[in-house]
Here is the input.
Amino acid sequence: MVRKLGPAAQLRICYEAGPCGYVLYWQLTELGAVCEVVAPTLVPVRAGDRVKLTGATQRSWRAATAAAT
Here is the structure.
């Protein structure tokens, strides 16, 4: 899958910590991608918003990741 997205060295990946643990992190960094594991409680969400894995959620994670660097 990483090959479809482009050269691993150019990818910045973040995912919500979950049952995958750090295995996914280790695999992605071994390929050369920059990877961050985000704690679910640190993802900014407006009060009353339900969290669904939609394009809007992905954009908010991307914005939070960009702001943190």
User: Anything to note?
Assistant: Residues 39 and 67 are 16 Å apart (CA to CA). The first strand starts at residue 12 and ends at 16. The mean pLDDT is 77.
